[in-house]
Every structure is written in structure tokens, then in C-alpha cells.
Design brief:
This protein is of the alpha/beta class. Helix content is about 35%, strand content about 15%.
């Protein structure tokens, strides 16, 4: 399965994209990479992707939402590897990643703040509506900051306030998509 630079606004239907980070969102941010142990969690009692089911539940009423991986896992490992870490339900929503091996320089990509990486992808992909769930809010462009749902490094999607914010954002975007469909603007 190859990463996609899938354009969302192709006329068939308006698409909502959720830009998804892993560390600090789907699990605690204290993830370590080592040759000996592979990818693992340093925080005692925590495990990788422990809050994936929360995202599944939040997205379930919104089948129009697609996922673009905005996690460093894609750059460090690969798109295929990163996607396979998700549950099958979440995997079925993934349409690409912000990093495209072979199409971009790792150095240039790494030297952009996360918000700039995501906004560059928004400009390439052209989703009808979008939002990002991320624990990294450093140097986000002011014009796209309202699209960010910021998570706490240790709580990620287990935080009830974050879950409420995602639910609220999904409802608002669903209404916006409905209005656009009715107006044939997209």
C-alpha cells in the first residue's frame, strides 16, 4: 500500500480530513525508538495506541472523515508501517500522509513546524474541510491555528475535554459539508 497524494476536492463529494499525530494523541508522548527494543513506551502502565478506540468511537458517526497521517512515524519508519499500526477501522480511513518519501527532502520537512507541514498538505490535497489532532502547537501558522485540536502530551485522546472538542468540531464540519453539498459549492 503506497502513500497517496490524493486530492480530496475532485468533484465526487466534499471530504473532511483529520490530520492525525500518534505520539501524544493515540498514546502517551513518551515513545522511544531503539534497535534493541524497537518502538516502545517509557511511561510505566502505558502502551502504544491505547486510545485508538477513542478515535474510532469519535469518528464512527462521520463516515465522510478521512485520515491523513501527520506523525513523525511516517518519516522515520514508513507510510505502510505507520498505517499498519492503526486498527483496521482507522486504517480504512487513511488516504495519505503529510510526508511523501521521494517527493520531499527529509531535511526540509523536519525543519518545518508541524502546523506548516500540515498546511502544506492542505494546499496540495485541497480538502473541503479539515482539522488536526496534535500535541505539537509550536509555531502553527496563525491562519490555520483554529483547525488545531491540541492534546496534552500525557493524556492525548483520553482527555474528556479533548474528546468533547473533537466531537464538537466533527459536528460543525458535518454541518458545513451538508451546507456545501446543498449549495453545490464543492
Amino acid at each position: 500500500m503506497r502513500e497517496s497524494n490524493h486530492k480530496c476536492n475532485t468533484g465526487e463529494f466534499p471530504v473532511c480530513v483529520a490530520y492525525l499525530d500518534f505520539d501524544g494523541v493515540l498514546h502517551d508522548d513518551d515513545v522511544v525508538w531503539s534497535r534493541k527494543q524497537g518502538i516502545h513506551m517509557r511511561t510505566p502502565g502505558r502502551f502504544l495506541f491505547e486510545w485508538s478506540h477513542v478515535l474510532e468511537e469519535l469518528l464512527r458517526p462521520h463516515p465522510e472523515v478521512k485520515i491523513v497521517l501527520s506523525t513523525s512515524w511516517v518519516r522515520v519508519k514508513s507510510f505502510d508501517f505507520s498505517k499498519k499500526q492503526l486498527t483496521p477501522e482507522l486504517q480504512s480511513r487513511v488516504i495519505g500522509a503529510t510526508f511523501h518519501r521521494g517527493q520531499m527532502s527529509k531535511f526540509e520537512f523536519d525543519n518545518q513546524p508541524r502546523g506548516a507541514q500540515i498546511f502544506s498538505d492542505v494546499m496540495r490535497r485541497l480538502p473541503a474541510v479539515w482539522f488536526a489532532i496534535d500535541n505539537d502547537d509550536e509555531a502553527w501558522p496563525a491562519h490555520s491555528r483554529q483547525h488545531l485540536i491540541k492534546t496534552d502530551d500525557r493524556l492525548g485522546l483520553s482527555d474528556l475535554k479533548v474528546q468533547a472538542a473533537v466531537r464538537e468540531r466533527l459536528e460543525a464540519l458535518a454541518i458545513e459539508l451538508r451546507v456545501r453539498r446543498e449549495a453545490n459549492d464543492v
